[in-house]
């Protein structure tokens, strides 16, 4: 206790001397700028001699320095601050012990003895090339200069001085994706198995959504079969050519639907093929809503039952040949689309009892209508391809024949039926009790005048 009392005056004297020295350093005539920092370094406000050592009695010395730092580089800072730079990846200035390349040892107008408070671009671009960060689309933290939102400025266990695993780091902000992926039935393979940076540039890009490449080039980098088809096909689906590309129809991260579709297939297709947005194509929303009978694939919500959603060698992205004209006699390959599902034999056998119900006895009436080498009619002469208001996909208003609509006036019975279109006189047919067309023709023919 006595010893403490004896030393106390000495300690007080030294403390007063140090404070006086600091006050003298910060006087208006010398280092007044140090006192003006918004965030001053604590020693610079009263303990200058904790970092500086006087090496000459006179101060200031003309064209010389009478003080030097108590230690060199980071060794000086380590006297108060915990050692850094021990992790796997170390920022070069830290590795070189050059703390003052980023921090002002006396103070700063920003936190952590830095010049800026939030915008770190000026500091970071002092070493890093700014061009890569100034493209059309910029990541939010980059735009604000918040480099340390993602990067540790000193050291890290992760490549690029990241503050953690790439995906985990991204999902800390993009938590909507984190929740969505947990609940989704399907997650896109790159999202599930690769870092976000496999598709996105984390800083800036010339492409929307910070994509590393434009659509659809980015996607076909993996989906090479689709890319090959797009390059060789005669017709490409128009949405693939716009800026959003594949994202017009597919969810790029996760989805509840097969094929990573952004919703059910029919809804997505009709979303474009309707109203004014359908352009020169048929208004499918109106057509489907106004008809009670739907073609099988559409009834099952599968537009790709007939159309290729990416590219095709056939008109309207069809999966096979389908005649556009009213007259189209059957030949091999001419009806490739329809015969993907329907039995080819109904167009190749003149007589049958099994391949079609549209027959008179065993006379195949599909063959009669379609296989005629001069006047074979296409499917669209009697059937609609998407939706209809009559049985057997027949349109009550009839097929288009120039400005005229040819009504079929189809009536079905349990064993056959009848029709009376503009193509011919009314005819009936029966699978069990065949109608004799010859007798009907004779009965309808005008009576001959008796011979003299």
Note the beta-strand portion.
5-15%
Overall shape: it is rod-shaped
User: Helical segment tally?
Assistant: 16
Strand order of the largest sheet: 19-20-21
The biggest sheet, with number of strands, parallel, antiparallel or mixed sense and barrel status, is: 3 strands, antiparallel
Tell me the number of strands. 21
Main structural class: alpha+beta
Distance N to C terminus: 163 Å
Rg from Cα: 42 Å
Low-confidence stretches: 1-20
Mean pLDDT: 88
Assembly type of the shown chains? single chain
Helix content: 10-25%
Structure description:
This is Cytochrome C. Pfam families: Paired_CXXCH_1. Keywords: Signal. InterPro entries: Paired_CXXCH_1. It is a single chain. The protein is of the alpha+beta class and about 450 residues long. Among the domains are: about 30-50 and about 75-165, no CATH class; about 320-440, no CATH class. The chain contains 16 helices and 21 strands. The protein has helices spanning about 1-25, 30-35, 75, 90-95, 120-125, 140-145, 165-175, 175-185, 190-195, 215-220, 225-230, 265-270, 285-290, 295-300, 365-370, 435-445, and strands spanning about 40, 50-55, 65-70, 90, 105-110, 135-140, 155, 185, 205, 235, 255, 295, 310, 360, 365, 385-390, 400, 405, 410, 415-420, 425-430. The chain has a 3-stranded antiparallel β-sheet with strand order 19-20-21, with no helix packed on it. A hairpin with a 7-residue loop joins strand 20 (about 415-420) and strand 21. The longest helix has 24 residues, at about 1-25. The protein is rod-shaped, with a radius of gyration of 42 Å. The protein starts with a helix and ends in an 8-residue tail after the last helix. Residues about 1-20 have low confidence and may be disordered.
